[in-house]
Design a protein that fits this description.
Blueprint lengths: L3 H42 L1
Length: 46
């Protein structure tokens, strides 16, 4: 690319996109583990 600012903006956009994808995956896995732990605790108390 001729314009370094454009390349920098594209790189930042790509990084933000990757970070949002990763954080979404991590959040869903954390939610799953938390729900599983709560379900286990609930079933263990019975």
């Amino acid at each position: 690319m001729d314009n370094p600012l454009l390349a920098h903006a594209d790189r930042d956009r790509a990084i933000q996109f990757a970070n949002s994808r990763v954080s979404r995956i991590v959040n869903t896995s954390i939610c799953k583990t938390v729900l599983d732990d709560r379900f286990k605790v609930r079933t263990d108390k019975r």
